[in-house]
Amino acid sequence: MTRKIKEITTAAPITVPRLASVRDAARWMRATAVGDVLVSDDVSGDGRLCGLVTDRDLVVRVLAAGRDPDGTNVGDGCSSELASVAPDDDVERAVELMRRHALRRLPVLDDGRAVGVVSIGDLARERDPDSALAGISAADPNH
Fold first, then answer.
1. Which residue from 26, 36, 44, 80 could staple onto 51, CB 3.0 to 4.6 Å apart?
2. Class (C level, CATH) for 5-138
3. pTM listed for this prediction
4. How is residue 89 annotated by DSSP?
């Protein structure tokens, strides 16, 4: 039987408003030991997901470009064209989307609301628990 996304997802994702500063997003990542946060449309007030930003996005799109992390909104550094999966999707759907779009993380949406994130590490632990990636993904975060 094929496993479902809800069985392997990292629940309770960190979500930040798109008008938050890049520095604030980086602080949330550090405080929660994650490498990504979801970005919500705080202007509309409906909690609509409008992007995902990773620690790498912040370095490449903001810091390396010489932009001020206090004066740059996280919405300006996030990936806004999102592929996503639903909790009841088969794990293979996530694998296919990650391959097709060269992604490492996918938001998990239930009726348009973010309920989790599934990462390439989650998939490695599911499909090949003895692999190096699975071992690294299961290790405690280093601060």
1. 80
2. alpha beta
3. 0.81
4. S
CB crowding 75-85: b at 16 or more within 10 Å, else e: bbbbbeebbbb
**pLDDT by residue (tens digit) across 119-130?**
888 888 777 656
For 34-93, what is each residue's pLDDT tens digit?
889 999 886 655 667 888 999 999 999 999 999 999 999 998 888 777 899 999 999 999
Q: Nearest-5° angle of CA 117, CA 119, CA 123?
A: 120
Q: What's the one-letter identity of residue 48?
A: R
Alpha carbon 92 to its chain centroid, in Å, reads 18
Secondary structure class of 114 (helix, strand, coil): strand
Helix (H, G, I), strand (E, B) or coil at 66: coil
| Beta pairing, strands 36-40 & 15-17 | parallel
Residue 106, SS3? Answer: strand
Burial of 40 (0-12, 13-18, 19+ CB in 10 A): buried
Domain coordinates in residue numbering, the chain: 5-138
